Every structure is written in structure tokens, then in C-alpha cells.
Hints:
CATH topology of the domain at 49-219: Jelly Rolls
Low-confidence stretches: 4-23, 200-207, 220-251, 264-268
Number of helices: 2
Strand content: 35-45%
CATH class of the domain at 49-219: Mainly Beta
Radius of gyration: 29 Å
Structural class: alpha+beta
Strand order of the largest sheet: 9-5-11-3-13-14
Distance between the termini: 100 Å
Amino acid sequence: MRGKIAFLILFVLLFHLVNAVGAEVIDFNVKPENPVNGEVVTIYGEAQPEEEVRIEISFENVVQVKDKGYVFSVEKMKIPEGENRLTVRAEGCENLKVSVRRFILGISTPWITLSSKASDGVAEISQTNVPAGTYDVLVHGKSSEESVRLIITAVGYEQADEAGNFSYTYETSPLPEGNFSVQAGNVTEIVNLRSSPRTSGGTTPTPTLAIPENVTTNETGEKRPSPIPQNKTTQPPLIPGFESIGGIAALIIIRMLKRFNGNISRRF
């Protein structure tokens, strides 16, 4: 009898646990339904009240190999505020490099490159908590194949309100024309991204950034980010003769203090 009761309690607990996991996001929609490249899409839906919703956006792109190298670039990509993660996976490559530079007040910082060697033709680089801002991103590397399959995934988080409603915006400029995947909680939807009028017909080629030569590079199989170079503090140049004047002033002050101490000793 006790065994049956214990089994029943366990069954009820598992039932509620499965429902809780599956009910993280009840439903969501993407607006506009058929976005054009460059538009901002809004992902809105319903989840558990005050729950943190994990939102994942991913797309694939096949890059042709030329002279044993491949390259894919995204210019002026905007990273919003908040916790995030960006993952780049390359299939059919020898190595993978992701070079980024940030724009601050319209001025670009030096390139920083993360690098990973491939294992069985697959390499992956993941970076968490990328600071908010505007970036140029360059994905490149070596390959002996005819093409390389890139899978780029961006993850963000949004808090649902007291009623369980949430919304999350994403700019589609970094995405190529075609399908991309949106996952909120355990619910996934495929969205078709159309080309904008200025790029349709292939009359205006997608600009490609030049592969940086002098960069900070971290070659690792552990996918850890390379250290961000610290700003060096440069000492201002001294005025000629300033050191001599400072030394003389110091001697005068020392002598004055000695005389002052001597006068005090005589009085007492």
C-alpha cells in the first residue's frame, strides 16, 4: 500500500514538473510576419508571470571557399543591452576566426579576433555578455572544401510582466535573405526574411570587410575570448627645466622646516 502511495506521489510530481517546463512560453508571434531585410522584428508572446524568457535567433549561410579561404561579414550590427550570447559554428573548415571591432562615438576600435581550430571539420566560437553597442563582425578562416556552412546563433533574455506578457525586438540587418529560426522558451517558429528593394536583383552587392592583418588573436580550443587590450596611460612630457626648479624648491622647503624646528627647540 505504501509503495502504491509513493508511486502515485512521484507520478504527480513528475507530471507537474513536465508541465512547468513545457509551459515556460505558452505562445508567441513575430511582427511583421514577412519582414524585409533591415526591418526590426518584434517577438511578443505569453509566458508565466514575471518569468525570464530565453529567446534564441539563429540562421545558416553557405559561404563559398576561394583560395582556400572563406569570409562572411556583417557591418554595423547592433547589440542591445542585457545578458546575451553569440555563437558562431563553421562546418567544413580547418579553422574559424571571428574578428570584431566596436564603434564608440562613430570611431572604430582596433580589431579583436577570436580563433578556434576545427575538430573533424567543425569549429565553434561562443562569446557571452557582449557589451551593448554597434559592431563590425567578420567571420573567416581556412578550408579545403568548396564551401563552408555557417550557423550563427544569438541568445537574449526578456522578463515577462505580471500578466505574463513579453516582447523582444531584433534588427534583421545582420541576417541574410531566407529563413531564420526564432525560439522563445520551448516554442520555435521559422520566419522568412525577404530582400530589401535596394538589394533585390543582385544589382547592389553586399559589402565585404577586408580581413584585418594586425589584430589581437587568441588561438584556443576552449572557445575563450581573447583579452581586451587595456588602454595604456601615457605620461605627459615635462616642461624643460621643470625638474631642476622642483628640486630647488624642495631644498628650500627642507631648510625652512629645519629652521622652524630649531626655533621651537630653543623656546622650550
